[in-house]
Amino acid sequence: MTEDAIRIEGLQKTYKARKGQPPKEALKGVDLTIPRGSVFGLLGPNGAGKSTMINILAGLVLKTAGKVTIWGFDQDENPRQSRASIGVMPQELNLDPFFSPRGALEVQAGLYGVPKSERRSDEILKMIGLEDKAHAYARTLSGGMQRRLLLGKALVHHPNILVLDEPTAGVDIELRQMLWENIRKLNAQGMTIILTTHYLEEAEEMCDEIAIINQGELVARDTTSNLLGRLDAKAMVVHPAAPVTVLPQGAGISSELRGDGAVVLRYHGNATSAEQVLSAVHEAGISIRDVKTEEADLEDVFLSLTKSRS
Description:
Blueprint: E1 4-15, E2 24-35, E3 39-43, H1 50-57, E4 65-70, E5 73-74, H2 79-84, E6 86-89, H3 101-111, H4 121-127, H5 143-155, E7 161-165, H6 173-188, E8 192-196, H7 200-206, E9 209-214, E10 217-223, H8 224-230, E11 233-240, E12 254-257, E13 263-268, H9 274-283, E14 288-295, H10 298-307
Parallel strand pairs: 3-8, 3-9, 6-7, 7-8
Antiparallel strand pairs: 1-2, 1-4, 4-5, 9-10, 11-13, 11-14, 12-13
């Protein structure tokens, strides 16, 4: 058995040309491995190819070329086993309005061939906080409740891998906290989680490793901490004791005056020390009332990597 939850080799997807338009290469030979038991972030701007990759993993879109192995099962040779190993919580709400939450889970379990004796619909409803809505029509549920039900449907067949496609887009804080609490529990039980999100602070907090896709290509894949380490850009924010008339200057230092009167000094830690930055502040005749330093976050890394390929 492989230690990879998912192995992708040379994955390509080209959509046929539409009238007056050339064929579109959504994925251009992507190689990617996702380790078992991890919380893995799949990030990229709109149109980067993330949704295409997820739909290929879920068996909803046919690849043009390449090899996909899910939980040790080749997608071409063992399509049923590979699909049974993965559950997908889609971004779009795709619920039958006339099914109750419990009915929707039962039908979904039946589609995956889960015997009645092995179904755990009531347990899932309790986990996602819908046990009191078990027999209500899905159309009467709020948007947040419907998103909870999508998570429940993704779990009915006991998948080893759970894919969350923009799970917290447009949801309230309470639902977001409930969702991440459940995800942490599932991951602690050994489930591999794959997350796509536009909320980069979520990926920074939740993910062990991150892959960044741009224009159908893999532009980065590393641990979250290593990705953050790629940018050693730092910022020192100085709150002066008196209004500033002269901005600090120095080699490798750029400075700007904020609207609140604070001075922001940007520099690279591998070339310029914090001591040098403070010396430039003192040489400018600035008396410091308060000071703090800031380091690059995942958004900085993301923008740097995607802009360089645009």
